[in-house]
Amino acid sequence: MLGGRRAVSLRDVTTLHEIARLSGVGKSTVSRVINGAIGVSDETRDRVLAVIDELKYTPNGAARTVRRRQSGLVAAVFDNGTAEPFQQPFFQSVLDGLKRALNSDGYDLLLLTKDQSGGFRKRAQYFSADAVVMIGVSEGDPDVDQLVAAQLPAVAIDAHIEGPRAGYVTSDNADGAVQAVAHLHALGRRRIAIINGLANTLPAQERLAGFRVAMQDWGMPIAEGFEQRGDFYHESGYEAMRRLLSKREPPDAVFACSDMMALGALQALQEQGVHVPDEVAVVGFDDNPFARWCRPSLTTLRQDGALIGETAGRAVTAMVLRDAPPPGIRLPVELIVRDSTTPRRPERQD
Amino acid sequence: MLGGRRAVSLRDVTTLHEIARLSGVGKSTVSRVINGAIGVSDETRDRVLAVIDELKYTPNGAARTVRRRQSGLVAAVFDNGTAEPFQQPFFQSVLDGLKRALNSDGYDLLLLTKDQSGGFRKRAQYFSADAVVMIGVSEGDPDVDQLVAAQLPAVAIDAHIEGPRAGYVTSDNADGAVQAVAHLHALGRRRIAIINGLANTLPAQERLAGFRVAMQDWGMPIAEGFEQRGDFYHESGYEAMRRLLSKREPPDAVFACSDMMALGALQALQEQGVHVPDEVAVVGFDDNPFARWCRPSLTTLRQDGALIGETAGRAVTAMVLRDAPPPGIRLPVELIVRDSTTPRRPERQD
DNA sequence: CTGAAAGCGCTTACAG
DNA sequence: CTGAAAGCGCTTACAG
Question: For residue B71, which residues of chain A lie inside 8 Å, CB to CB?
């Protein structure tokens, strides 16, 4: 079929020029066909399409990018400074939802990292990324500032950035904390402690703020040392719980700002023979898969990572495609009640 | 500093041509400086570098790709046909290790999906990806075949592909199963069941094969119905365990081909009041973070996802950079013994 | 409806 | 050591 086409190298690739030659039309026409433009006769288009099909031609995206000044690429930036990049199941869902939304709008995802050589702003610019989505970066990051200043459409997940072309998407973290406290209060708990996440992250800050407000609203003072800091991971929840249990008057309920930390707390409680939820009730945050599967199953605030990612993706393509204003969105979280606060089965007393 | 440079649009970007003009040299010279080439006087280079620095110039990757015929991009393909793409913590680690290795060799990662429009081969080609890493794809996939045929450097993780420029990296799955059986046999277990993963995946196939061989080697017949199928996720482990428990003679040990399924099995066992490990011992596969944190903690075969990703990344860049032969690698797995097979603390009998 | 030409931002022989 | 020119594969006015 291909006649005398010689295999110059392993990867000699068909070009638009070749398609034009073989279908006996000009390059402009082939270009129009590829881009689905009107103004091409059916007959011509069919002929060109046939050749394209036969040669399995795919346009060269790089060449197209040079001309159009847009790449169809969105850069996703992960900060893997403090924590392992994708270790948090929550971020996985975010990435998943983000990717899905982007793909459905015809964009592809470039995975960048904060600590990459040259900085992610340079990398994003190098690849002519049409927009950037940042996950887990902290405010005040010079790279972030440069990005915002460069007016490149950007949205941050779980960080509060603002600019003419920069916005954010996060969960309603404060409300989550408020829900947790209300739930525990309704169960008769009055000595509630919090195990907070990484202090320099927006979610940790907002959850702590919500916790404080709710405690005050319900007229419950926060006992000394009842605001423990953690880092979102198991170990820190375990340690924090041990510190809480070593107090003269331990809490009767704990609000952990992540399920992983809640699981660590559960572990510490079980080791000390403290009954959950009778003696201490535990609420987590995220609704990770294992929250349903651990024992006791974990009451938690479900945040929809996939939806967050999807929302960010849609917002960013809307900015690129329709010059939409940057988002400023807080998605609702839902309290999922399980055994760690209210046992479904009656437990034997001993 | 920039004199009369007007902000033509939001994103008028500095070009090499502009750098040349402002430093009073030719474009070729600027190009040489950027690419660190020799044959430029120190004086000239410094002058050019100063201008580049002041204008925060970053080369246009797309234009460079058009000329060089290589993009510096490696496409990572996830199959999200059957399972949620990144839901498996194991794949997270793989992605993490892969990204790290690629970055350290100067490559960036493009995230593609199997079910994307046009197929991943087209997308990879469109972006002039220099290589492709496939994660969780199944053999016989036409897209995979096309990729292999196209001689584009490719490595599959957990799938067995081979070609002049295509190889694979996986764990030593069969050996993992052998270790599991040996461990259980040493503990006196003789009625061992397996809960297998998705049947069309390489890991599931190899783990089952290893299991059969080991059972035979130890002279233990596999009882009828003791080969249960699962899909790597919790639920399927739970269901499989219930089926096993409903038998007249249930197993005294279970080898689950993923930690998630093992956790599901644990749940079923606890619901039925079956003691683990006294009555039934459980071994998982992966060593997910929660294997350490669940109760009882889970004996499992640790596979190093990050190392697998890293190995694949290095192999693929070696193919691109040094025309290295494609990899065919099985990384060792390590048995981590925990409470689900041998309790560390003596348990009270009741 | 169609094609020749110019040009996107780079790199790479080719001369000097 | 340095620069002018050609060309990578595309798209986009501009003519017809």
Answer: 62
